[in-house]
Amino acid sequence: MQRYILTGAPGAGKTVILRALQQAGHAVVEEAATDVCARQLALGHAEPWTRPRFIEDIVRLQRRRQALAATFSDSIQVFDRSPVCTLALARHLGLAVPEVLTRELERIRREQVYRRQVFFIESLGFMTNTEVRRIGLEEAGRFGELHEGAYRELGYELFRIAPGTPEGRALAVWRAIEAAGV
Asked: How far apart are the first and last CA of the chain?
């Protein structure tokens, strides 16, 4: 199983690229943090990221999705974010890194869950906020730098995907996967 990660700043177009890959018939796995936030918002929690188990909830959902994806027949999968992104999120929020995240980062390293080549989706230079994403472009850029730093710190190689059309960016991701010889 070859698992690739899309990462980058909020609003860079990761999910749109993921959709284009999915429409082209490739196996994809959704981002967890957005779903954790959306669920908490639906329950009436205006700022889900301030809840005590916010990071732990994301890690647990990421782990469940990764385990479910392991049952897919597809030998190549593309993930919208990973536990390394959750590390960057904890740092961005100024939160202590919970033990569940430390253990998960160790597990994905030990088991080589994800390919070391990670696709860093560069900012489009604009973004649209949603009920879940409430961040300005400048702050999103700093958050993207935290992602880049966390991946490099943990030994991942970043393959940059430049701004462009969703289809063109998805094609660039897929061509890089093919070039990796998988």
From this structure: 10
Residue 36: the pLDDT is: 96
CA distances from 36 to 33, 55, 59, 70 (A): 5, 9, 10, 21
Q: Domain 2-179 is of which CATH architecture?
A: 3-Layer(aba) Sandwich (3.40)
State the average pLDDT over residues 91-96: 94
Domain limits, the chain: 2-179
Phi, psi of 124 (to 5 degrees): -85, -10
> Which among 2, 10, 5, 3 is positioned nearest to 144, based on CA atoms?
10
Minimal CA–CA distance to 152: which of 31, 17, 7?
7
4 CA to centre of own chain: 10
Task: Compute the CA torsion angle 65, 68, 71, 77 (nearest 10 deg).
Answer: -10
The token duo for 47 is 């700022």
How does DSSP assign 85-107, residue by residue?
A: HHHHHHHHHT----HHHHHHHHH
Average pLDDT, the chain: 92
Rounded-to-integer distance, Cα 55 and Cα 126, Å: 27
Q: What does the radius of gyration of the chain's CA atoms come to, in whole angstroms?
A: 15
- Give residue 178's Cα distance to chain centre: 21
